[in-house]
Amino acid sequence: MNDKGEVLLKVEKLRKVYGEHEVLKGISTEIKRNEVVAVIGPSGCGKSTFLRSLNLLEKPTSGTITFEGTDITEQSVDIDKIRRKIGMVFQQFNLFPNYTVKENIMLAPVKTKMMSRYDAAEEAEKLLRRVGLFDKADSYPSMLSGGQKQRIAIARSLAMHPDVMLFDEPTSALDPEMVGEVLDIMKELAESGMTMVVVTHEMGFAREVANRVLFFNDGIIKEEDTPENIFRNPKNDRLKEFLSKIL
Length: 247
Ligand SMILES: Nc1ncnc2c1ncn2[C@@H]1O[C@H](COP(=O)(O)OP(=O)(O)OP(=O)(O)O)[C@@H](O)[C@H]1O
Ligand SMILES: [Mg+2]
Description:
It is a single chain. About 35% of the residues lie in helices and about 25% in strands. The protein has helices at about 45-55, 80-85, 100-110, 115-130, 145-160, 175-190, 205-210, 225-230, 235-245; strands at about 5-20, 20-30, 35-40, 60-65, 70, 85-90, 165-170, 195-200, 210-215, 220-225. It is globular and about 50 Å long. It starts with 6 loop residues before the first strand and ends with a helix. It binds adenosine-5'-triphosphate and magnesium ion. Adenosine-5'-triphosphate binds next to strand 2 and helix 1.
């Protein structure tokens, strides 16, 4: 199930403690290049904390995260440089309201001097076509539907040419009729070979697109397997109970 190539992200004994509350209790896993990993589990089990730790939006209490061979939990690491290679898409889009759609996409590549304004504009147009929103280039985020906003957020993230994309429940804030258009973009992205870690409640997506599913429960990975095994032949009782509630 895992012969997808080299290890891109290696997580070892990751722990995160908030005050008295141990939210992550020792997570170890590997994400390989071109792999699509779905993270599922009940509310509050640490999925977002795990995902946010992968680009150090949360600082681990202990453990290591190795990205492309570099331990990014080390003090000396230039985390801004690392984050440019790790795209992140949130539930709440987080577009910049004062910029047009096209400017939103151009902003990071220009600001980090990765591209000239001219190249960034060209790239933005290409990405807008890819997510089917070229006609919205000069619109402001407030003029878009939730599904459109999320497609722009994905395009914006892609503009940095990340090596891996992290998604935290990208469709949870959407009206049901807009979920499909976002999942379609994500599916296309997966098919193009993007390495993806996706926290999701969309079991259909996990089943169809993921190579591997991590079931989180109470701060640990309780079960980790192919979607086939997770959904057809779950072993852990907590996983069985979780699936019986949501499927
Ligand atoms: N900044 C924080 N300070 C204190 N506790 C926190 C903080 N962030 C998260 N927590 C706690 O950590 C636990 C795990 O939160 P997390 O957001 O990772 O869960 P989740 O699995 O993503 O849940 P959901 O499915 O509801 O999004 C929760 O009990 C939450 O209250
Ligand atoms: Mg969450």
